[in-house]
Amino acid sequence: MNRINIILLSCLGAAFILLHVCAIFLPVEYFWGLDQWRYFPAPITVLFILVGAVICASPLLGKSGFPKVKINIFSNRIFFLLIPVISFSFFWFVRQKIFFLGDGYFWIRMLENGIRYRALEPLEVFIHSVFYESTTKFINISPQDSWALLSAMAGVLFVFVAMRLSDYLGSTYRDKMMIFLSMLSMGTIQLFYGYVETYSIAALLTLIFIYLAVKSFEKRSFAYVSFFVFSLAVCSHISVLGFLPASIYLYFRHLFQFSTLLSKMRFTLGIIISFIFPIAIMLLTFSAGGFTLAKFLNEYSSSGHILPLVPGILAPNVAYTLFSYKHFIDIWNELILIAPISFFAVFLVMFRFNDIKIIILEHKITYLLVAAVSSLILCFLFNMEIGVSRDWDLFSTLALPITIASVLILIGLFKERAHVAGVVILGCCLIHTIPWVVLNAKEDYSLKRYIRLTSSSTWSRHAKSYAYDELRYFYEEKNDLLAALDWAEKAYSQLGNERYRLNLAASYNNVAIMFAEQKQMLEAESYFLRSLQHDPDDFQTIRNVALLYFEKKEYDQALEYFEKVLILHPNDIESLRESARICYILGMYDKADGYLKRALQVNKDKEIERQLLIFQNQLWNKMKN
């Protein structure tokens, strides 16, 4: 690297750091992929800036490059086993604390409800469900901890495979370290920090089939195993199909090496069987569990869609059209977040294309670039209904081929001095990704970021209402019922469908119960009645209102609401008994007797029967007098 290249590289790193600083002060929708520093205390943010400045200046000061060490962690068996074990400690103890990113709370409820089968992510959901059901037989573990444990375990295997791939691709120790650190510095690594979503296993399988595909260029038999694992990855999550063009490239690359038609047919048959077999086994297993092919197809047809091309009246689940500036902002932020090295790769291609075009003709890099481009196209076209900044993980596996290809191009471009450039590039990537991981491990930081994201203009009405409703659920779990009600009102105001209407009614009911328990009867009455405005036929709320009026000794209104309960549930024993009691108080003895007889017909429990008979005797004596 000459002096000019060093200066350009340092300037590029400085620009990357400067973007992070600018993101602190600009609206969230423009820089959500690199605004992690915004949510940290000012001294820590300043520390990030200073570390970034040192990293960028190090080549100019002649203090750069990976140090030479005597122990090669890629060939030393102790280190080879120790590093994945150490990584589990990080994945577990710095794990995600709240689960707003993606559909975390949705998956927690899925485990709680015992649901095993899903069409879009069948294998991953099945594994998590079986693991949770099996684990709870021996230890008391929450759904989120069960999911997080598998996520961290997948991360250990990911690190192990990343080390193997780095050892295979790198020709020197420094090259191996660059490849390995590039994969650890991806934003995608967040998937293994106890992340509650259906992408951890998919990301692990994606890295494995990429590793096998790369190795197949030297030993063809790995191609069969690569297609087998690719099929498993598709079973884990359907988004992995974005890599299908790369697998097709791999197939034809090997096919053209056969000289006879028979050998080509044998190879083709082997590839087809390798790909079809896991999918067939999965479909048979699910069919045996009652989840038929028809259900699969039905879920697929009702799932995500392509962004519209022509501007017009957008559906509630669409925030913008293809090729709009908001669309480009979201995709740019997505790439920076999951693959920060892409920022540097783009500029390297722009300024050194004549040197790079020879490097990318190498089959391994070509395969990786085809995988990156094909998955990026799918990411570009797909409508992420809950907002790209929240659903960042849907195409997070895209970072794998981008990152690996970028670092290989970097090594080929700078050759023996690549480690000097690597310190700047990978150093910048690490101070981008480490705060991202820590941010999600701190409940107050991640909650603050999520609430800020809900104001983004790149979210659709569906995305915002869904986010508000998840915040309602979060605060209800925290027993902060007034905050939960506030978010329920916002969810309903964005998208007034039945789901959010009923959730709002339930929130009003919860707040009313809270005030009733505090003996604030006027407030309780107000919130109960608001609840009934949104859900006039809710049995529990109507009975709560009746009990409230009974507590206030407003017996006429109490009886009116108990009678409404009995219209909905004629055999509700509690309402029958209370109606009889109210009628007795109001002197409506015949009516009270009628309610008691109905109650005795409904419930044959001896203790309740004894109590009702005592009450009935008192009533008859009262009527005689």
Question: How would you describe this protein?
Answer:
It is elongated, with a radius of gyration of 31 Å. The N and C termini lie far apart (about 110 Å). Helix 5 (about 120-135) packs across helix 6 (about 145-170), helix 14 (about 340-350) crosses helix 17 and helix 23 packs antiparallel against helix 24. The protein is an all-alpha fold. It has three domains: about 65-295 and about 315-445, no CATH class; about 460-535, Serine Threonine Protein Phosphatase 5, Tetratricopeptide repeat; about 555-625, Serine Threonine Protein Phosphatase 5, Tetratricopeptide repeat. The protein is about 70% helix and about 0% strand. The chain contains 28 helices and no strands.
Number of strands: 0
Q: What is the global morphology?
A: elongated
Number of domain modules: 3
Report Rg: 31 Å
Largest sheet: none
